[in-house]
Amino acid sequence: MPTPVVSTASTVWTGDLFHGAGRTSLDSSGLATFDVGWKSRSEGHEGQTTPEELIAAAHASCYAMAFSNELASNGTPPTQLDTKAAVTFVAGEGITGIALSVRGQVPGISAEDFARIADAAKAGCPVSKALAAVPITLDAALA
């Protein structure tokens, strides 16, 4: 059985929601610390990250890994996958949807097989599964 890997992050927040601010740290890797705040989340980024941007980064990277594995299992490993995730947040409603987009350079694969395997990777991606409470769309095409 594989050894579980636990990834951690933390946020220190001061003040109330509308006037406060926070710093989010990637604790497991120690690679980054980000400023976060309500105004960035509800009105635009203004040099700060948001929980949704962090979710988008996690989803894009996880999906790229899942898709590359599915393509390799098909005997058509990718040369390159350019993956984007756009997470939509509406104040008062929450996260309302996620749009995945991938463009791939995959020698020896048809557009139909690429699209079919892309859908299978979306269904099997651990982050897609974790975020299944919201609609997730996929736009997949060969580059």
UniProtKB/TrEMBL annotation:
Gene3D superfamilies named in the record: 3.30.300.20
Per its UniProt record, what InterPro entries does this chain match? Answer: KH_dom-like_a/b, OsmC/Ohr_fam, OsmC/Ohrsf, OsmC_Ohr_Peroxiredoxin, Peroxiredoxin_OsmC
Sample GO molecular function, one term: peroxidase activity
Biological processes, Gene Ontology terms: response to oxidative stress
What is the name of this protein?
OsmC family protein
This protein's species is Beutenbergia cavernae (strain ATCC BAA-8 / DSM 12333 / CCUG 43141 / JCM 11478 / NBRC 16432 / NCIMB 13614 / HKI 0122)
